[in-house]
Amino acid sequence: xxxxxxxxxxxxxxxxxxxxxxxxxxxxxxxxxxxxxxxxxxxxxxxxxxxxxxxxxxxxxxxxxxxxxxxxxxxxxxxxxxxxxxxxxxxxxxxxxxxxxxxxxxxxxxxxxxxxxxxxxxxxxxxxxxxxxxxxxxxxxxxxxxxxxxxxxxxxxxxxxxxxxxxxxxxxxxxxxxxxxxxxxxxxxxxxxxxxxxxxxxxxxxxxxxxxxxxxxxxxxxxxxxxxxxxxxxxxxxxxxxxxxxxxxxxxxxxxxxxxxxxxxxxxxxxxxx
Length: 274
Description:
This protein is an alpha/beta fold. The protein has a single domain (2-271), classed as Dihydropteroate synthase-like (TIM Barrel), CATH 3.20.20.20. It has helices at 37-50, 71-85, 99-107, 124-130, 158-174, 194-202, 204-208, 222-228, 236-248, 259-271, and strands spanning 2-4, 9-11, 16-22, 54-58, 92-95, 112-115, 135-139, 182-185, 215-216, 253-256. The two termini are 20 Å apart.
């Protein structure tokens, strides 16, 4: 399977690691660590040295309870980083739900738009449809960041997430975006309980049956903390374990903070694929 993006046709016959670059002061795990352009670019280069295949740059935290950021503030955080990052000769993704940010970063040559709102915000679908080739990742989120963990989903998560992602992917195709440009993300931690998150992992085959690449982000999430007893700064090992399980069950891409340990674990897994 391949994921078609602006400049790259990403081969998913082997799993790919997407390294997280948060250009934010308030992300749940590493807020403020890479909030300047210089620090963010240094982090990009470090993640590439560690083996990241894709970089995902974000200028607004979507952690539970996070306040919204204005268009102007998000652009001020992200654009200086993106303008330099597109020169690194790797696929560059931008984590945003705002049409104005999408348009601005695509104009710089960005390859992928990674949207936690699955293009439900005003103008977002139109920006993606108007672009000739960018990749897009549609994520399932129940509710919104301000309230999603105080009012999580009820019942089983499988069918609602499958149906949501299926319908939004199909809707995008009806306005001219070919399926090869689309990837899906079940949205671990976005309005779901610990049980519901692990239910999605246990039944990941139902997401794969939709026929799109699957991008999964377990890294440092509260669910891995809940089952392991680890605080957020101590969740590298359970995060790598979850990423490895997701890959073993068919995910083509994993979005992680800890690139080097994830790459090491995947090498061990790959050695056993004989």
